[in-house]
Amino acid sequence: MVCSCLVCVVSPPGYGAGGDCLAAKLTSGQRPRIGLDVAGSSQMRGVHLSFAQAAAADGIALGSGSFDWLCEQGHVGLERVAKAQRDPALVAPVTAALETLAAIYARLKGDVSVLYAARENLLLPVELVHEPTGTVIEVDESAHFTSLRLTALELYPDDVAVGFDLDEYKELCRTWCSTTDALARGLAAKGFGFGGVQRERAYHDALFDLAVPAMGHPPVVRIAAVDGDGEAAYGRHRTSLARLLGS
Length: 247
What we know:
By secondary structure, the chain is of the alpha+beta class. The protein has helices spanning 6-10, 46-57, 74-85, 91-107, 112-117, 147-153, 166-180, 197-214, 230-236, 238-245, and strands spanning 36-40, 63-67, 126-130, 135-140, 221-224. The protein has a 5-stranded mixed β-sheet with strand order 1-2-3-4-5, covered by helices on one side. Strand 3 and strand 4 (135-140) form a beta hairpin. Helix 4 (91-107) packs antiparallel against helix 8 and helix 6 (147-153) packs antiparallel against helix 7 (166-180). The N and C termini lie far apart (52 Å).
């Protein structure tokens, strides 16, 4: 029997024998940036648009775009695309991301069979990306700070690479969940059923956090904008962003 795990799929012919998993034998090298399709600012809206406009005034160009490994299939799509890349450097980071994302999806009571049946060509929008560095920036309004998001964050491994203060985000979830947990309570979401919109949002946030660095990009930068003011959110992080993005 031939193993179909990510490790064995990307291994060169003859690297191992007997279909044994080769995870212990591969080491990660430098991870390339892969698959960014930048669409410009026309897809932006609301808090992301005002954030990008404020950044543009400082000479920082942020566009919107997509990746083929961020799609409706979630971590199933991530694994599919990573296998197709056949790059040994992706094995360790993507395998670690898949394990955590699978645990988060299960804890959020998602139906994994739905991911396998989902559309691989329905890409999730990446609202803000700095193309020269490949840095993804997420500006989070209050709806992102829920008890379900906290559940996901608490499953992140201790050594996770994120571009935001994890403890601060957990505390914001605790502070806001008494208000935000009631939002969109009656709306259904694919894979999560009736009332699943918040579960889906928490999962997608985790998908971005874990898949983006696993596929060779810098960690996702998350900036809280609980008041919905993207311009003010940019102003609070103006200096650190300029330093991070080399502007």
